[in-house]
Amino acid sequence: MAYASVTYTSASGTTFALTNSEGIAIGYIRQQDVKVYVNDVLKTLGVDYNFNSAGTAVVFNVALSGATVLIQRITEIAEPTVVYTAGSTLTATDLNNADNQIRFGLQEFRDSVNAGQGVTDGDKGDIIVGNSGSTWSIDAAAVVEGKIDSGAVTESKIGSNAVTESKIASGSVTETKLADNSVTSAKIVAGTIVNSDINASAAIDGTKISPNFGSQNIQTTGNVQATGNVQATGSVVLVGAGGNTSLTASSTAGNNTLILPNSNGTANQFIKNSGTAGTLGWSSLTENSNNNLFGKNGGLIPASYYYRLESDVNHSNSIAAQNIFGVGPVLASSTVYEFESVFTLRRASAAYATHTILIGFGDGTGTLITTNNIAYYSIGNFSASASTVAAPDVNTVFETTNFNSVTAASGAATGALVLILLVKGTVSVNAGGTFIPQFKLSALPGSTQTYQTAAGSYFRIWELGASGSNTSIGTWQA
To answer: Residue 399: exposed, middle, or buried by beta-carbon count in 10 A (0-12, 13-18, 19+)?
Structure first.
């Protein structure tokens, strides 16, 4: 039987009675003499637990679950509980406290002897005794240098890997402490050898460097020379002062070899395949001031704006100007252009009011565009009620962008109409803008009657040169 302690195993709840294994109350003189451990951890009175009002039980602030609770009385015996003085009044409480200090101390000693421990659980200064004397621990920093005899710590007293970097003073491991050949690759931390660790005269052979530098850049202020091939899976980037130029292989083509010319050529030449595919040579085409190309004898090789209708364009029943194609080319300023267009305007067979068709050109951005030498030729003027094609109108010239009547035959009040026009001419652009082929009707043909521009109609325009003077391309002689 333990007189002064009780152990609760797999304990749950908040309240634990101060009675030993025999059901006898564990008395105490002071509450602080009662030590409480939960899973071998000493708890604090007033913080982790308190006594009930009768002082017969320990009450935890938080309920425990499945814990081992040890409640153990350790009576203070360093000082007497009661100090008697001559002439003082002797009370039963003093006598009982004095007797209990002796009796409680003996009970605690008996408990220790019976347990084969001889020492009670608790803090013994630098040593803590717990778990009914079966667990002893030395406080951190209790074993100081003065407690160790000189030469007492031998090699066998040092555990494997016990001497870590923090236990070695900076600069204490000198060259004489290192065995020959002891610093191997495995002893060097990756990334710790920097440029300053390599002697300037080391002259490291290229055979010591792996040819694969991974994702690292290779930089040099000298030249890169190779007697074999130079290969790159990405782009070859030529860095200039104002930007870069990249050479990139096709992602789908096979192996190709391009042999460059053996000279720099002359001004305004370009590179093309020579008689042997892949062998590049210089060829001569020249440009005018507007970057149009000239052929061998100075003739113009124009680059055209081109627009063709794949499906009909429906127009509205209106006498306002309407875009024949629904779009128009954007022209540059101070430039002369040549153009041609073939388009078909048609209407269905129905009753119409008498009207004529007028053709002109609009300026979509409000800038000044001057047209001249614009002629149209009526390729066909077909009426559903006529068995012959009407005589075409020819040699009509527009001197401005004003609308001009191109046919009177469309004034027929009834029947289907198909009007096919060829329009050719030049336009001189003062300020850049949108050049819009348009048509207008002199009167509304009917409340719901409309025209269409038929699929297959096209408009083509190309640049000739700068405006402001006669346009001269090629060699001319007076």
So the answer is: exposed
Mean pLDDT value of segment 7-34 = 91
Element (H, E) at 130: strand 127-130
Query: With contact defined as beta carbons under 8 Å apart, do 15 and 62 qualify?
Result: no
Strand residues in 385-451 grouped as ranges (E):
396-398, 404-407, 417-429, 433-441
From its phi and psi, is residue 98 left (phi > 0), alpha (psi between -120 and 50) or beta? Answer: alpha
Each residue of 295-309: b (16+ CB within 10 Å) or e? eeeeebeeeebebeb
Identify the residue with better confidence: 142 or 60.
60
17-26, 115-124, 239-248: least confidently modelled range: 115-124
- What are the φ/ψ torsions at residue 183 (nearest 5 degrees)? -90, 95
Q: Do the Cβ atoms of 383 and 409 come closer than 8 Å?
A: yes
pTM: 0.42
Among left, alpha and beta (phi > 0; psi -120 to 50; other), residue 332 is: beta
Separation CA 379–CA 60 (nearest Å): 111
Among candidate residues 280, 374, 364, 289, the one with its CA nearest the CA of residue 321: 364
Cβ neighbours of residue 469 closer than 8 Å, sequence gap 6 or more = none
Tally of CB atoms within 10 A around 430: 14
